[in-house]
Amino acid sequence: MSSQNQPNLRIPGPVPLPDDVLKLAGSQMINHRGPEYADMLDRMTRNLKTVFMTQNDVYFITSSGTGAMETAVVNTLSPGDKVLSIIIGAFGERFAEIAEAYRADVNRLSFDLGQAADLDKVRETLKGMSNVKAVIFTHNESSTGVSNPLEDLCKVIHEESDALILVDAVSSAGGVPIAVDAWGIDVVATASQKSWISPPGISMVTFSEEAWKAYGESTTPKYYLDIQQYEDYRKIGQPPFTPCLPAIFTLEFALQSMVDEGIENVFARHHEIAQHTRDGAKALGLELLPDPKFASNTVTAIKLPEGLDGKAFLAQVTKNYNVILGGGQKSLAGKIFRVGHMGWVEKSHIDEALKAAEETLKSMTS
Ligand code: PMP
Could you give the angle at which helices 245-261 and 263-283 cross, rounded to 10 degrees? Predict the structure, then answer.
């Protein structure tokens, strides 16, 4: 990246793409209703199931990650359905807003920024509710760098309710293990521009048998995101609508590469680079925002010294070092910066980003 004078893009998605992937994204268009696409769709479907450790159906949708979240909502819920929305940051709030937009009865359970969901509180809340149709939450809260303990959360939800589990895994899937079948997750939503080393444009969902049952009962109006259309067309090896082909080309390549590398190795690589980032930040005397037990393996949120102009900090890092860091969102604006480390990332990318942060902080505080 830097060697070609490209900026070192260290935001939590879209992720930078290596040269071979960039070339692939620039490939000539194909007939999305022809045999070549059918072959690709078949391979992609199989490989995505492998990454998600699932026998459930999986679908590719031309949308960003929010479209996949909306797909989860419109296909399983009906107006008036009771939903428990567990919120640990900005994207959890977005999920709640989507469910509200479709007139679900949304009950929020919120936790402090930097914290994961507390399992006892989730248990207690579910005990106090009845007829919960779905529990919705973010796996990896990109705005705070916190990963919810997904397996344990699913266990508590299954123990205390018959609710569907709808998970926004936009910024975790592909970098962090998600055992859809073993953990009993009904819908998982993710998007191509994150750990999947692709441009934005394609989102992905898994869809369980229970989710299909809920689909049969759902009265929410839907068309573009109606999952039945994706299923009907999948059977004939086609997408229902014209897909974002550049992202399909790269996603097919990424999925095959992940399966060839071995998904445990992909996850181990993400863990290692995340630890390298956290260690590097701490070595600079900086404090991490998240509770260390739940620090994300795809994005690290680092506190800025009190009183420092966060906006000026980000601008100087970019101007002087050609490094693009993520800022804080909403109430965290100006208080933290974020380093993305999902997909294709080498230790040198992280070291360069942290060095830029260190030198900029020195110059701003001296
Ligand atoms: N959820 C999470 C956890 C995310 O990180 C993002 C994107 N940053 C989204 C949802 C929304 O995805 P998109 O911007 O692709 O719609």
Answer: 90
Rounded to the nearest angstrom, the distance between the alpha carbon of 299 and the centre of ligand 1 is: 13
Per DSSP, 335 falls in state: T
According to DSSP, the β-strands at 8-10 and 146-147 are unpaired
Report the pocket of ligand 1 as residue ranges, CB < 6 Å. Answer: 13, 64-66, 91, 138, 140, 142, 168, 170-171, 191
Q: 93 falls in which pLDDT band (50, 70, 90)?
A: very high
Of 181, 131, 172, 130, nearest to 154 (Cα)? 181
User: Whose CA is closest to 105, among 125, 75, 85?
Assistant: 85
| Domain boundaries along the sequence of the chain | 8-16+263-365, 19-260
Give the per-residue pLDDT at 83. 99
Task: Identify the pLDDT of residue 209.
Answer: 98
249 Ramachandran zone, left/alpha/beta (phi>0; psi -120 to 50): alpha
Tell me how far the alpha carbon of residue 342 lies from the centroid of ligand 1, in angstroms: 14
Fold classification of 8-16+263-365 is: Aspartate Aminotransferase, domain 1 (3.90.1150)
pLDDT at site 14: 98
